[in-house]
């Protein structure tokens, strides 16, 4: 048996022992106080009942041990769905086994009574025993089922939604209705059995006896009924608890990655699975979006020249901050000829993808227009015309400059407003240039930067 | 004043109570006949009519009381489940329990009140002989309690169903009662009452008929009550199972919807485990929605921006009608299209598809679209425009991304379309029931800056359609997962009636495209272009153009005198290849040279920032050359009325105006000279009749 199976095995053994003890005690009590004829053979009956439950305990524990060992041997921890299915099958197998075993032992006893007993109507007695066996043993099977489900639930692995498409879920109507039918029939058959039994011995029916039988039977079946149904409702409560815990402890994508356990093959299990599937789908979708926005940031960066743009006489270098996300600031450097580089820097109002779409349009418009032989003012006016057409009504600002090695001038359009800095480096000190035109000299860099207050990122 | 909802509620309540009381009457009659041994005839004389009338009265009273109790529900209905929803939900949740308790208390009080006198009287004069009387009295009390319990349980079960119905309509989305209960409460209530009813009735039968027990009646009593309680229990369990199933179904529906619908909330229809699940689910939905709200907003805005960038093409673009449909696979897509009216007769239609999907593709789509809008202003043939666009794009993306583009320039004067493709899927021409896929083979734009794109010209007869699309259309999958493919798309196009307009044909084709879940869905764009009825095939002057178009070229110059020489050389090469005879070629060159000089000098003021476009269109027996500048034009009517003979005479004596001969030469050499405005630019159009020796078109 695998190590993980030992604690569960111990718990299951306790369940078998407890149910066997309580059931044997109830049957003995019934023989002692209710069934008058049984009192004559009380010792034999007691031995039979105790022996039967003892044997059941041995069979059940061995069967469980065998099952758990097989689960450990055949299912490695990675096949979560198979482990989950095998564990959930165990309570059902035990319930069926108990029913088969219980009915066999019960009918062996009643057959013995039929042949050797002295009952005036042995056939009626046999039928009564059969019906009683069906309801009481059926009920006890359901009790085993309910209790074992509570125990194995702790071991159930969290199912990955991808592997669960083949799972078929059932309705818990069947076991709950079966439990109700067993409960009512058990009480009814106890009452009917007592009436028939008493009448067959020509004894008067005492109201007190009937009331006592009814009350005791109702008490017993109600206890069993509660055990079974609490198990079903616990599944839902556990799911609620897990959801609430996730909701309180996690946020965002962490929350989406938290799956709730699928507690059964009934509605609650299907619900948990559907929820996990939704979370998985959401996590995948939002993951995709985040990835795509990162790729979009790369694409946006790709549209702006990286590194140094050189001609034989000029070098230009541009950079945009906030490269992790798409932004609303942009720049461009275009070599017009060996002695001239066109420079653009600007921003679009808004942020994120909507603004980035407009920045891409602006960059394309600049690229298309800057080579038309016009000066910076004309290029700017054409770019602005494009932006008015495709700029989605967003506010934008562009500054375009043509750096010429021939003239040693940077001609700017429009003139620098107060918010934009342009500095000559390196004279050891930064100098702000106020004019429309800046005159450079060999070995001197001109630094041109946005003021960083105009949106996400700065060029 | 009762509205329809009020009447519906009243009617539902009355049916519920009347139905439940009828079942109660039936069970009571069964008890009287089977357990107590009364005759049916005797019962029909008084008991049954009395019970029925009393039940009817009780049903009316209970209906009215419940209806009044559910006032908040009615108010909520009137206000479309608004402000009163919470109070209404509380009333609905409590209603089954309230009615159950009230019914049980009423039965107990009435039973006690009915038997109290007998109890007191008998208790005062107690003797052993009275044991039988006591047993009978207990029997009666049990019987009445059992009937009361039966009715209470019936009301409880039915009202629970009714309240669920109205709670679903109210759709509360959060906890509306402070204390959560458990489903064990109605479950144990139904179970306990059911067990008690069956047991009580069996006991009662035995107590009533102890001496002469009839097993058939005994088991019939058991069977009737067992079936009755079993039905109630099954109804409750089914309700519970259905409610859990509804939660699962709601989640499944969310899964089936688009991402924007994933944050919808569920109705909290109870304060038990089901309600708890719905509440915690809704809380999580809120948390997740809040966390991703910024992202969702950003994408929504991006989608809106993209739609505005694409702008809905005018259904009537110049002489052409265009139908367009665009559907991005996700919020934003990489497909692009544009329709630009070049002049009264010519319309350029672009369709494209950026590699990749979603936001990254959308950025490049935006850039490509702007590049196209910029290049289309510069003019040129479709191939030339694509070439320029490719060059700029390749510089921008450095071969890391690419865009497939298809550019068609429709010309109504020649009933033709010039199409150039940059790796884009081949368009279809639909005419007279035949569907022809145009052959294309080229490299997508953005990969190699030096690629040139060839264009081909096709006839587009009246009634014909051209279908441009992106690969997402042919990759559409049906629900079975089968891809549309080119063959099936061609079949689908065959089915598009030629009588449809471009918009209708586009709509028809779009609706016929398969729509199914596809793991790798792509953006889809479909454009259908057709000539506008009555608009094509005529030009200014009302002359019918019966010439068939053969070829076209476009050049651009800017600057000062002399730049026109390169164009004249190309024009000569092109026309020589076409087989125009030498003498006529000289005429054409001279007239075009004059036109170019006029455009450069007078139109553009010799500015290098302004360009002159020379557009050549070759037909079977004529040439049309349009020279377009960026000037404001001139009073060409007055100039055309100039007396050229007098002007020549004055020039010869040396006192005439030395300028203005260009127009004269153009007029003299060309068969027709026309002037006009195209997209805000002035043009002069020269038409020459030519005879070709059948050279290369």
Q: Overview of this structure, please?
A:
- The complex is a heterodimer of chains A (459) and B (697).
- Chain A has 459 residues and is of the alpha+beta class.
- Chain A has helices at 5-33, 42-74, 80-116, 122-152, 173-200, 207-249, 252-257, 267-302, 352-369, 376-390, and strands at 308-310, 315-317, 329-337, 340-348, 396-404, 409-413, 421-425, 437-439, 445-449.
- Chain A has a 5-stranded antiparallel beta sheet, covered by helices on one side.
- In chain A, α1 runs antiparallel to α2 and α2 runs antiparallel to α3.
- Chain B has 19 helices and 16 strands.
- Residues 534-547 and 652-656 of chain B have low confidence and may be disordered.
- Chain B has helices at residues 4-35, 40-69, 71-78, 85-124, 131-170, 184-208, 215-256, 273-291, 293-310, 358-378, 382-397, 471-474, 485-494, 502-512, 564-578, 582-603, 636-640, 644-652, 661-669, and strands at residues 316-317, 320-327, 335-341, 346-354, 403-411, 416-422, 428-431, 434-437, 455-459, 465-469, 524-531, 549-557, 612-619, 622-629, 672-678, 681-689.
- Chain B has 697 residues and is an alpha+beta fold.
- Chain B is 54% helix and 16% strand.
- The relative contact order of chain B is 0.06.
- At the A-B interface, α5, α6, α7, α8 and α9 of A face α6, α7, α8, α9 and α10 of B.
Question: What distinguishing features does this structure have?
Answer:
heterodimer; A: 459 residues; alpha+beta; five-stranded antiparallel sheet; two-stranded antiparallel ribbon; 10 helices; 9 strands; 60% helix; disordered C terminus; B: 697 residues; six-stranded antiparallel sheet; 19 helices; 16% strand; rod-shaped
Concise summary:
Chain A has 459 residues and is an alpha+beta fold. Chain A is built from ten helices and nine strands.
| SS elements, strand count of chain B | 16
User: What gross morphology of chain A would you assign?
Assistant: rod-shaped
Helical run tally of chain A: 10
* CA distance, first residue to last residue of chain A: 66 Å
Q: What is the gyration radius of chain B calculated from CA atoms?
A: 45 Å
Q: Please summarize the sheet with the most strands of chain A.
A: 5 strands, antiparallel
Helix content of chain B: 40-55%
Q: Uncertain spans of chain A, ≥5 residues at pLDDT below 50?
A: 423-434, 452-457
By helix and strand content of chain A, what is the structural category? Answer: alpha+beta
What distance lies between the first and last C-alpha atoms of chain B, to the nearest angstrom?
A: 84 Å
Low-confidence stretches of chain B: 534-547, 652-656
Strand content of chain B: 15-25%
Greatest contact between two chains: A-B, 97 and 95 residues
Percent strand of chain A: 5-15%
> Biggest sheet of chain A: strands side by side, in what order?
3-4-5-6-8
Overall mean pLDDT of chain A stands at 79
Give the number of helices of chain B: 19
Broad shape of chain B: rod-shaped
Q: Give the fraction of residues assigned to helices of chain A.
A: 55-70%
How many strands in all of chain A? 9
Oligomer: heterodimer
């Amino acid at each position: 048996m695998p190590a993980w199976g030992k604690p569960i095995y111990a718990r299951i053994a306790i369940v078998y022992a407890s149910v066997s003890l309580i059931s044997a005690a109830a049957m003995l009590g019934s023989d002692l106080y209710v069934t008058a004829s049984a009192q004559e053979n009380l010792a034999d009956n007691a031995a039979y009942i105790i022996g039967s439950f003892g044997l059941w305990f041995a069979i059940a524990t061995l069967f469980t041990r065998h099952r758990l060992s097989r689960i450990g041997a055949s299912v490695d921890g990675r096949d979560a769905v198979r482990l989950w299915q095998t564990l959930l099958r165990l309570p059902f197998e035990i319930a069926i086994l108990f029913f088969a075993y219980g009915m066999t032992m019960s009918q062996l006893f009643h057959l013995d009574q039929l042949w050797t007993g002295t009952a005036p109507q042995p056939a009626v007695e046999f039928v009564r025993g059969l019906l009683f066996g069906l309801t009481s043993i059926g009920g006890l099977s359901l009790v085993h089922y309910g209790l074992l489900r509570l125990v194995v639930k702790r071991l159930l692995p969290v199912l990955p939604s991808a592997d669960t498409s083949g799972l078929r879920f059932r309705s818990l109507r069947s076991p709950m209705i079966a439990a109700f039918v067993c409960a009512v029939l058990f009480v009814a058959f106890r009452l009917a059995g007592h009436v028939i039994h008493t009448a067959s011995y020509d004894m008067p029916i005492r109201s007190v006896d009937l009331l006592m039988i009814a009350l005791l039977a109702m008490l017993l079946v109600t206890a069993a009924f509660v055990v079974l149904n609490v198990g079903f409702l616990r599944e839902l409560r556990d799911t609620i608890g897990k959801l609430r815990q996730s909701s309180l402890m996690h946020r965002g994508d962490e929350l989406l990655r938290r799956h709730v356990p699928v507690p059964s093959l009934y509605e609650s299990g299907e619900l948990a699975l559907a929820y996990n599937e939704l979370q998985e789908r959401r996590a995948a979708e939002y993951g995709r979006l985040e990835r795509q926005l990162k790729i979009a940031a790369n694409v946006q960066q790709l549209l702006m020249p990286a590194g140094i743009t050189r001609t034989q006489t000029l070098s230009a270098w541009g950079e945009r901050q906030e490269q992790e996300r798409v932004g609303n600031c942009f720049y461009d450097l275009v070599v017009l000829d060996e002695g001239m580089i066109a420079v653009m820097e600007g921003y679009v109002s808004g942020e994120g993808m909507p603004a980035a779409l407009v920045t891409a349009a602006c960059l394309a418009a600049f690229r298309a227009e800057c080579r038309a032989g016009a000066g910076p003012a004309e290029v700017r006016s054409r770019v602005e015309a494009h932006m008015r057409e495709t700029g989605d009504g967003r506010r934008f600002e562009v500054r375009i400059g043509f750096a010429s090695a021939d003239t040693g001038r940077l001609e700017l359009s429009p003139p620098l407003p107060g918010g934009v800095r342009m500095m000559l480096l390196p004279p050891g000190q930064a100098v702000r240039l106020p004019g429309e035109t800046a005159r450079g000299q060999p070995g001197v860099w001109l630094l041109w930067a946005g003021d960083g207050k105009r949106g996400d990122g700065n060029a | 004043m009762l509205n329809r909802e009020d009447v519906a509620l009243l009617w539902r309540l009355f049916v519920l109570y009347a139905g439940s009381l009828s079942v109660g009457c039936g069970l009571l009659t069964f008890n009287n006949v089977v357990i107590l041994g009364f005759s049916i005839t005797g019962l029909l004389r008084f008991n049954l009519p009395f019970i029925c009338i009393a039940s009817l009265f009780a049903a009316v009273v209970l209906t009215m009381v419940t209806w009044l109790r559910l006032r908040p529900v009615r108010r909520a209905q009137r206000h479309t489940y608004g402000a009163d929803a919470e109070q209404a939900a509380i009333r609905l949740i409590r209603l089954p329990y309230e009615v159950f308790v009230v019914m049980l208390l009423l039965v107990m009080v009435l039973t006690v009140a009915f038997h109290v006198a007998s109890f007191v009287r008998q208790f005062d004069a107690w003797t052993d002989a009275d044991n039988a009387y006591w047993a009978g009295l207990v029997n009666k009390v049990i019987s009445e309690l059992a009937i009361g319990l039966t009715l209470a349980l019936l009301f409880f079960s039915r009202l629970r169903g009714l309240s669920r119905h109205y709670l679903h309509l109210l759709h509360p989305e959060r906890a509306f009662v402070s204390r959560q209960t458990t489903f064990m409460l109605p479950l144990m209530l139904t179970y306990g009452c059911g067990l008690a009813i069956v047991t009580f009735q069996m006991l009662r039968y035995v107590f009533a008929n102890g001496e002469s027990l009839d097993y058939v009646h005994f088991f019939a009593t058991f069977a009737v009550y067992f079936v009755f309680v079993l039905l109630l229990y099954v109804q409750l369990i089914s309700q519970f199972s259905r409610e859990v199933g509804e939660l699962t179904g709601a989640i499944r529906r969310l899964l089936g919807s688009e991402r924007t619908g994933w944050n919808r909330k569920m109705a909290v229809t109870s304060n038990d485990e089901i309600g708890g699940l719905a509440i915690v689910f809704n809380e999580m939905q809120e948390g997740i929605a809040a966390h991703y709200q910024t992202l969702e907003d950003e994408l929504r805005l991006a989608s809106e921006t993209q739609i505005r960038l694409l702008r809905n093409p005018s259904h009537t673009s110049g002489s052409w009608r265009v139908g367009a449909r665009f559907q991005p696979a996700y919020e934003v897509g990489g497909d692009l299209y544009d329709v630009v009216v070049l002049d009264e007769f010519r319309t350029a239609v672009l369709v494209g598809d950026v590699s990749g999907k979603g936001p990254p593709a959308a950025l490049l789509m935006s850039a490509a679209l702007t590049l196209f809008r910029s290049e289309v202003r510069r003019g040129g043939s479709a191939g030339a425009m694509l070439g320029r666009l490719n060059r700029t794009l390749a510089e921008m993306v450095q071969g890391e991304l690419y865009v497939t583009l298809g550019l068609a320039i429709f010309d109504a004067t020649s009933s033709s379309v010039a199409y150039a493709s940059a790796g884009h899927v081949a368009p279809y021409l639909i005419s007279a029931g035949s569907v022809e896929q145009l052959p294309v083979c080229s490299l997508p734009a953005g990969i190699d800056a030096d690629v040139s794109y060839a264009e081909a010209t096709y006839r587009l007869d009246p009634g014909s359609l051209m279908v441009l699309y992106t690969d997402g259309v042919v990759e559409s999958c049906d629900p079975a997962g089968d891809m549309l493919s080119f063959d099936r798309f061609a079949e689908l196009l065959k089915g598009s009636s030629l009588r449809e307009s471009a918009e209708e044909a586009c709509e028809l084709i779009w609706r016929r495209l398969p729509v199914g879940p596809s793991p790798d869905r792509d953006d889809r764009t479909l454009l259908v272009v057709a000539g506008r009825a009555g608009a094509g095939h005529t030009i200014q002057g009302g002359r019918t153009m019966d010439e068939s178009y053969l070829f076209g070229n476009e050049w651009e110059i800017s600057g000062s005198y002399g730049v026109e020489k390169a164009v004249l050389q190309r024009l000569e090469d092109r026309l020589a290849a076409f087989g125009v005879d030498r003498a006529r070629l000289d005429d054409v060159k001279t007239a075009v040279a004059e036109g170019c000089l006029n455009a450069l000098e007078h139109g553009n003021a010799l500015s290098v920032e302004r360009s002159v476009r020379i557009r050549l269109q070759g037909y079977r027996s004529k040439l049309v050359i349009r020279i377009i500048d960026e000037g404001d034009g001139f009073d060409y009517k007055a100039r055309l009325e100039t007396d050229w003979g007098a002007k020549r005479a004055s020039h010869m004596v040396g006192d005439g105006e030395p300028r203005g001969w260009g127009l004269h030469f153009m007029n003299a050499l060309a068969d027709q000279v026309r002037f006009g405005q195209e997209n805000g630019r002035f043009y002069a159009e020269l038409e020459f009749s030519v005879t070709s020796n059948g050279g290369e078109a």
